[in-house]
Amino acid sequence: MMTPILEVQGLKKHFSATRGFPRRETVVVKAVEDVSFTIMPGEAFGLVGESGCGKSTAARALMRLIEPDGGKVLFKGEDVRAATGSNLKKMRRKMQIVFQDPYSSLNPRQTIGSALMEPMKVHGIAEGKAARIRAGGLLEEVGLPPAALDRFPHEFSGGQRQRIGLARALTLEPELIVADEPVSALDVSVQAQVLLLLKELRQRRGLSFLFVSHDLSVVRWFCDRVAVMYLGRIVEEGPSGRVLADPSHPYAKMLRDASPVPDPARRGVLPRIIGEIPSAANPPPGCPFHPRCAEAEEVCKSLLPPFLPLPAAGQGGVACHVAQRRLQAS
Ligand code: SF4
Predict the structure, then answer these.
(1) 247 within ligand 1 shell (Cβ under 6 A)
(2) Ligand 1: which residue has its CA nearest to atom 8?
(3) pTM score > 0.85 for this model?
(4) Which residues of the chain fall below pLDDT 50?
């Protein structure tokens, strides 16, 4: 059986925060609580949810950009949390992240050339003239002229900077790209160009993706499988076609209904997302979604629904008392 490129089991990330005035108290914010999923080689896996649901924290924790507090992360079967020294360096080389705002991760005083060549030197891939040729080739691959090597980040538009961010992620020949809201800061027309480029790179290089986004239409187009997160937990997971067209969880249905679809037959006013995500420092008891859920029952107020697989094989699973009962009865 093929080994997954990434396996995440029970990932946790908690933060402490102080609040209140004049009496200050320290609270624990459970940003990521028991998150599990698997990405197969060449697969694009989406993590979706509203802002504050924990999807970006989960992505950073599994790469150890912030240290997780619990759970297991396996990259091609190797334990990421236990890795140290050269082993960790090797894994980091194979897992690269692309941020929403590439400008914040580019040094404004450094030319694009040195931003691309520096990691090659650190990881012993190439230096000097060979690194420059390689960097020029990467810029061409992302649709920029090699002459851009001698320019500075402020000389480029948002879309071009995201292309530079991609070229930099590719410098170390990664196998998995963690793309954290990679197009949400861009204009719609530029978004489409960058998404097409991501798809081309995925096909050409056989890359796997963890694609973090709040935008369901983007995830529907790009990802094979998707997990919907709410207040630090996955509430539904499965093939994107199934989850985004026919979700079982009431929260996934709410996101689906509020997401625009390019279908003139369904033109009209989109339903609004109801309510706001509660604080992860003080989550509601039982099912964390119950204060916003139109289908909530008495049991939902006290009992956390377990994440259980759907009856049909390969269709993923859902964490909802009502959806599970409905699916068993059908
Ligand atoms: Fe709604 Fe209850 Fe399902 Fe939670 S468990 S999503 S409150 S129906």
Answers:
(1) no
(2) 296
(3) yes
(4) none
